Structures are given as C-alpha cells and as structure tokens.
TrEMBL record:
It holds the Pfam family Nitroreductase. GO terms for molecular function: oxidoreductase activity. InterPro entries: BluB, Nitroreductase, Nitroreductase-like, Nitroreductase/BluB. It comes from Sphingobium herbicidovorans (strain ATCC 700291 / DSM 11019 / CCUG 56400 / KCTC 2939 / LMG 18315 / NBRC 16415 / MH) (Sphingomonas herbicidovorans). Residues 18-184 form the Nitroreductase domain. This is Cob(II)yrinic acid a c-diamide reductase.
C-alpha cells in the first residue's frame, strides 16, 4: 500500500489556526450542521493513541432535561470552587462565565476507557495514564478541526466526575475528562478571555523550557 500524498501546509496558516484556538464560553445558539459534527468526530478519531488503543469515548448529550441537570451541577461546582478566592480575585472570578452548557448547540462528555482491550495494552503497562493522554490528543485534534469550520469549543472541567457519571450512567471503567461545548462563538477575539480580563497572562515559551 502506497503512503498517502501529503501536501505541505503553510506554516503561517498553521500558526494562525493554533492562535485562533480559544476556550469558548459565549456561544450563539444556532445549530451546527450534523455533517460538521460527524466530520469533527472523525477527525478526533484520527488522533494518535498509545498502542493504537483509541480509548476515547464521546457521550453526546441530547435531552434538554439532562443538559439542564449538568448545567446546574457545574453551576454548583463553580460556586464551591470560588470559595478559595478573596478580594479583587473573588470579584473577578464571580464575573467570569465558566461554561456554555445551556447555550452551545452541541454538548459531549468525553471519557477514557481505561480497560479497553484495543491495542493489547501496548505502551500502557508501565504508564496506564498514557491512555488518558491519548484522549487529550483526540480532544485537541477536535478543537483545532472545529476552528477550521468557524466552530468554537469550550472544555468544562469544573465538575464532580462521580456525579456526572451517575447522571450519564457511565461504565465504571471509564474515566471522565470533562464536558465539551461546541457552537459558533458570539464573537471572534484576538486574545483569550482570561488574558483580556486580567486573570492570567500567557508565559513566554522560553520560561517553560528546562535544559540539562
């Protein structure tokens, strides 16, 4: 079998795509074409995985009642997490919109199947967490693919996994990695919201490289 032909990708276009990736919280409610949703999942499924284990599992949330239960759950977790902040940081935290679970037209819960037999445990015997790293690669692949079609994504991690698992009737071998909100952003911004709002600034990449 011959190798697939690869057309060189313009590095400036790739850099623009990476820079355009945002953790979106403000969504328009316009529906996403189902063909786009299927294409995004197919791209996520092309992500690399340890031992070709493909351990990612995407649970699509389709019922309004379940969506509202999840949103209320995350609201409660947001309030609980905010108890650690004081003063100006507390006021800023309370002003942030930390999820779009009610507005985003497409919602997934993403899981890692830690007991999958696919891949025959190759590469995961000494580092079983590599399966979860593989799932993160799938999420990031989906994230970048979404931007190419003008779709934004928000990764919601302020949740209590066991509570969400119970709502979704999840097998015990699956580990939750978060909720994914997908939809058209209300606006396109050059700078991520947490930077614009003064919550944190992006570090210079040189500062995170350690040499030995």
């Amino acid at each position: 079998m011959s190798a697939p032909a690869i057309t060189p990708i313009d590095s400036a276009q790739f850099e623009a795509l990476v820079r355009a990736r945002r953790d979106i919280r403000h969504f328009r409610t316009d529906p996403i074409d189902e063909r786009d949703v299927e294409w995004l999942l197919s791209m996520a499924h092309r992500a690399p995985s340890v031992g070709l284990s493909q351990p990612w599992r995407f649970v699509r949330i389709e019922t309004p009642e379940l969506r509202e239960r999840l949103a209320a759950h995350v609201d409660a977790q947001v309030r609980a997490a905010g108890k650690d902040y004081e003063g100006d940081q507390d006021r800023l935290y309370r002003s942030l919109k930390l999820h779009g679970l009610r507005e985003a037209p497409v919602l997934f819960a993403v899981y890692c199947d830690d007991e999958t037999e696919t891949g025959h445990h190759l590469g995961a015997v000494t580092m079983p967490e590599a399966r979860r790293y593989s799932c993160v690669m799938a999420v990031h692949t989906l994230w970048l693919a979404a931007r190419t079609r003008g779709i934004g994504m928000g990764w919601v991690s302020i949740m209590e996994p066991e509570g969400v698992d119970a709502m979704l009737d999840i097998p015990s071998s699956w580990e939750g990695l978060g909720l994914l909100c997908l939809g058209k952003p209300e606006s396109e911004e050059d700078t991520p919201e947490l930077e614009r709002r003064g919550w944190e600034q992006r570090m210079d990449w040189h500062s995170v490289v350690v040499r030995r």
